[in-house]
């Protein structure tokens, strides 16, 4: 979340799937049992959330989600979320650095594997030469 900055929360709605697994409990009751992390998440996004229950026969859950999306759009004056150029460059630089480290680790693994195989071949050849002598 640090990559997006605090502004992302103005554009966030948490969608819970598998509402049928609540087994008759309200989502609020479920929140109370799930601890501080979930409470923090909901607080950060202005308590905007929606529950999708695939067993529900009515369209109210879809209508509620669309209404929340419309509310977010209105509250943000119709603007969508965008990363600023500086943040975008930082993200790209971090991504490039991670990829470079991954490539370096892969080369080390391949080198160690090659040395291990060469060592096993030499050991095998040595054992065979000992048997022949």
Automatic annotation (TrEMBL):
<protein>
    <recommendedName>
        <fullName>AIG1-type G domain-containing protein</fullName>
    </recommendedName>
</protein>
<dbReference type="GO" id="GO:0005525">
    <property type="term" value="F:GTP binding"/>
</dbReference>
<keyword id="KW-0342">GTP-binding</keyword>
<feature type="domain" description="AIG1-type G">
    <location>
        <begin position="3"/>
        <end position="99"/>
    </location>
</feature>
<dbReference type="InterPro" id="IPR027417">
    <property type="entry name" value="P-loop_NTPase"/>
</dbReference>
<keyword id="KW-0547">Nucleotide-binding</keyword>
<dbReference type="InterPro" id="IPR006703">
    <property type="entry name" value="G_AIG1"/>
</dbReference>
<dbReference type="Pfam" id="PF04548">
    <property type="entry name" value="AIG1"/>
</dbReference>
<comment type="similarity">
    <text>Belongs to the TRAFAC class TrmE-Era-EngA-EngB-Septin-like GTPase superfamily. AIG1/Toc34/Toc159-like paraseptin GTPase family. IAN subfamily.</text>
</comment>
<dbReference type="InterPro" id="IPR045058">
    <property type="entry name" value="GIMA/IAN/Toc"/>
</dbReference>
